[in-house]
Amino acid sequence: MLLKSVLIASSLVTTSLALASPHDGHHHHDHESGAGKDDKAVGAGNPPAPAPSEGTTELPSRVDDDDDDDDVNADANTVSDFEEEFKAAKSLAGTEGKFTSVRLFSCVKPETEDEITAAFEAAVKTNTSILAGVWASGSKGIDGEMRALKKAIKEWGPKFTDLLIGVSIGSEDLYRSSEAGKKNDAGEGNSAEKIVEYIKTFRKAFENSAIAKVPVGHVDVWKSWRDSANKEVIKEVDWIGLDAYAYYDDDMDNYITNASDLLDISVEATEKAVKEATGSSKPIWLTEIGWPVSGQEWNKGVPSVKNAKYFWNDIGCRRLFNKVPTFWYILRDSNPQNKMKFAITEKDDLTKPKFDLSCPAGSDSGFDSEKPASTGPPDVDAKAGASSAKIPGALCTVLAAVVVGLVAWV
């Protein structure tokens, strides 16, 4: 079955993750986590009734404008705001309308206890597939999230439930509650025990509903997945959500041309953790991945449009799109706290990409161009003294195993 490509829209990420109290949806960028993004994502290839086996390649949307810019207010997103972004994702030049799914971090409208996020209605109106999120950090619990989701099911019925490709209980909660997360002031997280409890509670609450068979997962970073203290979460989920940002791997050789090898390391470590916890394998969805177009240098990681394009071609086109469920970060920047900008579109024009989004011929991305991939030295922006030595890895082998596991899993 053809795997779909998906793009994460910034407006989605922003509103979906309730940035305001009580959900404290702010992510903080640091060297362990890719966090610091908006909380919605738009994806591609939306079938009438998306099945887990069809996968999604998504582009995470993080809203990241400087304080003196005209920031997008994530909390103020309306149905029309979301519609604009979902439609923009589907019409991106060079992608042939492949980005038709959205990842959300919460079911709840900001500043409310259990009102439905406006993103749900926008998704129904634009026929946009949804990877729904249940915010699970802090001590508030998930009752409000579940009430909002039940309201949406009642409000739109199959028009809504047929769009759900998955539900994530939490996002990077394990990382934020870890010693590394606390050291980096990453925000409030939650324990593995709580995440497992919430997953079981969620399954029980919806066991007789129209979404009873929708796959449930959790999203976190690879260093959290490899921590044996979190193995019960691995056992409980249907799929593993992996946020992978080579740019932030400053304890490794994070030069842009090493990005695919760093992805290798994170995928292999996660696969190994799953094998050790369960004795078998589970589908891995790349729930956030991307390279910044501007911002500060992070060890050997240099943000630039040129490097973002290289990352798009080398990681997205060649290895992920149409092959592995992937959420690319990001459609539009709008989080003033995040100084690293990941948006693939111009700030004032969502229809104008910052670089050519079409993939080189032979990429099997689903939107290949006729232009062949470059055979010369990588055209990248490098930091003085940065190494381009490759880190050993075998991503193709790893990803092939993931695809087989995903396609076979229904």
CATH class annotation: Alpha Beta
Number of domains: 1
- Going by helix content, strand content and strand pairing, the class is alpha/beta
Strand proportion, as a percent range, falls in 15-25%
CATH superfamily: Glycosidases
Number of beta strands = 14
Corresponding CATH architecture = Alpha-Beta Barrel
Anisotropy-based shape: globular
Radius of gyration: 19 Å
Cα separation of the termini: 12 Å
SSE order in H/E notation? Answer: EHEEHEHEHHEHHHEHHEHEHEEEEEH
- Sheet having the most strands: 9 strands, mixed, barrel
Helix content: 25-40%
Protein architecture, described:
It contains 13 helices and 14 strands. The protein is α/β, with parallel strands linked by helices and 410 residues long. The chain has a single domain (6-408), classed as Alpha-Beta Barrel (TIM Barrel), CATH 3.20.20. The strands form three sheets. It has a nine-stranded mixed β-barrel with strand order 2-3-10-9-8-7-6-5-4, surrounded by five helices. Helix 2 packs across helix 3 (118-126). The chain is globular, with a radius of gyration of 19 Å.
Outline:
This protein has 410 residues and is of the alpha/beta class. The chain has helices at residues 10-16, 79-90, 118-126, 143-156, 158-161, 173-177, 179-183, 192-205, 222-225, 231-236, 259-278, 305-320, 395-408, and strands spanning 6-7, 40-43, 57-61, 101-104, 129-134, 164-171, 216-221, 239-244, 284-289, 326-328, 345-346, 349-353, 359-361, 368-372. Helices cover 32% and strands 16% of the residues.
